[in-house]
Amino acid sequence: GHEFLVALRLDHADALFDSGKLDQAIANYAEIADRYSRDSHAAQARYNAAVTALQLKRSTDAKMHATRFLADYPKDPLAIDARFVLAESHLMLGAAGEAVALYDQLLKEAPAHPDVTRYALRRAAGWYLQKSYDLVIDDVSQRLSSWKNVADRAQAEYLLGVSYFGKGQFVPASEHLSA
Description:
Order of helices and strands: HHHHHHHHHH
Largest sheet: none
Number of strands: 0
Shape: elongated
Number of helices: 10
Distance between the termini: 59 Å
Radius of gyration: 19 Å
Strand content: under 5%
Structural class: mainly alpha
């Protein structure tokens, strides 16, 4: 009975999410994770609360849920993704240093993860926010040739352009910004 009940509650929270009732979905996911923390569905519920809060740009809530996920389920397969949610939350909250440290950790722990390019780009965005333009330029320039996705390459060119601009190097800035 208990296992079935929790699965049913998670299905209900997912249905709320699917129907666009994201605030209610977060509340239901959080309740499942809090009330049934030892159930096999609790980790998924906590992760879903974190991701949904991030989607709604509720950075403080996303940070709290991702932090709790990582504390309660550090070995869960979703821990890498929860760490990304935590990093994004820090970036959105203006804590670029914390975000950069988490992106570094992700790049070291999961070099073959399908989102590794996103981790590198988001770390570069964090460096840019810290005005560490040389780090952005060095890292992104080295990685750019291996990135095939057009959107990734466009974001990389933008980060390079604004970093050169930040350094007062307007010719390379304009080359990257018009690429």
